[in-house]
Description:
This protein is an alpha+beta fold. The chain has a domain at about 35-45 and about 65-95. The protein has helices at about 15-30, 70-80, 95-110, and strands at about 1-10, 35-50, 55-65, 85-95. Strands 2-3-1-4 form a 4-stranded antiparallel beta sheet. A hairpin with a 2-residue loop joins strand 2 (about 35-50) and strand 3. The N and C termini lie far apart (about 35 Å). About 10% of the residues are buried.
Amino acid sequence: MKYYEFMFILRSDLEQEKKDTLIEKIKGYFSKENVEILKEDHIGVQKLAYEIKKTTTGEYFLYYLQTENSGSVKNIRKNLDIIPELLRYIFIKKEKHNIETEEVKNEKETEE
């Protein structure tokens, strides 16, 4: 089993309905490739470090994923590359215990 952290940035000036449609489209790519979403976080709107596609702010999303097929990520990347409202994305390969540690760390932060 392979685990990934997937972060992506959407244009912050999109209408909520358009954002929801894009997120569902991305989730559809995951389900088509048999990638399971373990956890998802909406980080919110942040100022970008530099201008991307003539915009200075973006809405950040973070997903923790698992799959049995490493080729799934390659296929998903091909689909993500053609979405113009998607400013940036990154897949980071993780170990299972790292994902569980992140979940525990996030829970402790919310308790404080």
